Amino acid sequence: MSARTRWFIAFAALLALLPVLPVPEFWITQLNYIGLNAIVSLGLVLLTGVAGLTSFGQAAFVGIGAYTAATLAVNVGLSPWLTLFIGLGITVLVALVLAAVTLRMSGHYLPLATIAWALSLYYTMSNMEMLGKYDGILGVPALTLFGTSLGSGRSYFYVIWVIALLAALAVIHLLDSRTGRAIRALKGGTTMAEAMGISTYRYKVQIFVLAAMLASVSGWLFAHFQRTVNPSPFSLSKGIEYLFMAVLGGVGHVWGAFTGAALVKLTEDQLKDWLPRLIGTSGNYEVIVFGLVLVVVLKYASEGLWPHIERLFARFLPEKRRVRDWADAAPLPERSKPQPGELLLEVDRVRKQFGGLVAVNDVTFQIRAGEIIGLIGPNGAGKSTTFNLISGVLSKTSGRVSFRGEDVSALASREIARRGMSRTFQHVKMLPDMTVLENVALGGYLRSSAGMAQAMLRLDRDEERRLFKEAERQLERIGMKDQMHELAGNLALGPARLMEIARALCTDPALLLLDEPAAGLRHKEKQALAAVLRQLKAEGMSLLLVEHDMDFVMNLTDRIVVMEFGTKLIEGTPAEVQDSPEVRAAYLGTEH
Ligand SMILES: Nc1ncnc2c1ncn2[C@@H]1O[C@H](COP(=O)(O)OP(=O)(O)OP(=O)(O)O)[C@@H](O)[C@H]1O
């Protein structure tokens, strides 16, 4: 059992004891509110901290859960245990509609959109006759379980905290899974995730819905705790407060949600008490203090407080090192590979215009299975753009790309990845706060299938072991097995590039596209890389590489395509290219 698991059990045990100890009712109530708020903030940890989608509107989902519970219990007489699921159903529907409208927005538009729908939902709830308008709904019954009333603060404490801790556990499990890695990949832009076969939009929607569901559960709990529901706790300002809790606590960390919820609740009450006495008049002065605190936290502890708490107690909270439990795991499925010499990739008059600039001008070439092809040319020749056109990252202005006999010209990059084309990037794209092994395991995404629910319930462990075994195998292949537990963000450029190759190999590709793989590598590392690439070729792998290091390309490739000003200048063997006067003039002449 890890130290963190022991702490979790100790924390849960302490919470379980509190209501039976002579703790004043006031503190039990405070803890109940902290638990309710933490459940909502937990959703924001996933949505904002992990996936990078800022929402100011979570309070509206709390409102949906609370109003559904209140109105169905008071006006229809339904069992609260039934209204929980009805509330979740309504929340999912509303969240799906909002996701469809807003989640394709980027930059500042998404947070603005969340403000817009938070206001809309708030005023809808406030103006509906059947929801009691601004007066709300009174007389919400207490929860009962097996005939026992959970009406007292002390018994309700257990309901709130069992749900809060189970939710925390589910989120911890989710983050340490295939789906979790995919969600974490959303934050750094979508290109890399899509190249690994991940539908980034689908995951954004899933996370949005999950965060809304957590908020809705909190609302349901709130309705039966307060026994009355009115619109004010579901306003935009409360939505901002939830975000504030998550950011203050540490928006990327599960326990940050709890830290933030506790700090905000406790200081809010103290400030409400003290500030009017200090200032001499009453008013919502605590909001001003919170605003100032947030500015200070964002300036000096932008990750929030939890990472600092972790560092402070590092001795008692050691980093969880992944246990190597995959030695006897079954291998992941492999795709059928093309026969040597088979036509693999056909690039036919591919063109890309950026406004008036023709970056790629009707370029044509082919790759046969088992070949290593080099794509070279001076800076700005259009090599990376050609790469992006082949791998589906950019759409073509005209032309056609066929892969294994199939026209893939119009396919998204994740669909092309699914067909067996994998790539690395000119500027390394990785998840710096995940280990090297986890980054490489992301490459196995399409070879595995466990979804969100399986991850949360920990039913994905078998598949995880298979993924890590494969990731370790690929790291061994590339000579980086010893670094598998290191944080990817700590790697120097050379090893980071190698890690990208291992990740691409983890997809089990039929064609590997490497964008300047030798850039930043030392001489020895380059030799090792060339040896690995030759070994891959010997195993039947086909490679297309963009490279600036001429020696590297000349000694490694079967054929070379030279580009200049977006146009293919010549194609031939390394010797032919080296001897070409045109190439000397256009490229080698300037390089050598
Ligand atoms: N998104 C874009 N919008 C406008 N112009 C672009 C875009 N991407 C590339 N270009 C232009 O297209 C041309 C080809 O760029 P590309 O990056 O493909 O060249 P390259 O051969 O890969 O160069 P390098 O070796 O420097 O990476 C350049 O003139 C570049 O400025």
Automatic annotation (TrEMBL):
Residue span, ABC transporter domain: 345-590
The annotated topology with respect to the bilayer is: Multi-pass membrane protein
Q: Which CDD domains match?
A: ABC_Mj1267_LivG_branched, TM_PBP1_LivM_like
Q: Which SMART domains match?
A: AAA
| Molecular-function GO terms, alphabetical | ATP binding; ATP hydrolysis activity; branched-chain amino acid transmembrane transporter activity
User: Where mainly found?
Assistant: membrane
Q: What is this protein called?
A: ABC transporter-like protein
Which keywords label this protein? ATP-binding, Cell membrane, Membrane, Nucleotide-binding, Transmembrane, Transmembrane helix, Transport
InterPro entries of this UniProt entry? AAA+_ATPase (IPR003593), ABC_AA/LPS_Transport (IPR051120), ABC_transp_permease (IPR001851), ABC_transporter-like_ATP-bd (IPR003439), BCA_ABC_TP_C (IPR032823), LivM-like (IPR043428), P-loop_NTPase (IPR027417)
Task: Report the PROSITE patterns cross-referenced here.
Answer: ABC_TRANSPORTER_2
- The question of whether Membrane is a record keyword is answered with yes
One GO CC term, this protein: plasma membrane
Membrane as a keyword of this entry, yes or no, is yes
Localization terms from the record: Cell membrane
Q: Could you list the residue ranges forming a coiled coil in this record? A: none
Domain of life, per lineage = Bacteria
- Mark the transmembrane ranges: 32-53, 60-78, 84-102, 109-125, 155-175, 205-223, 243-264, 285-302
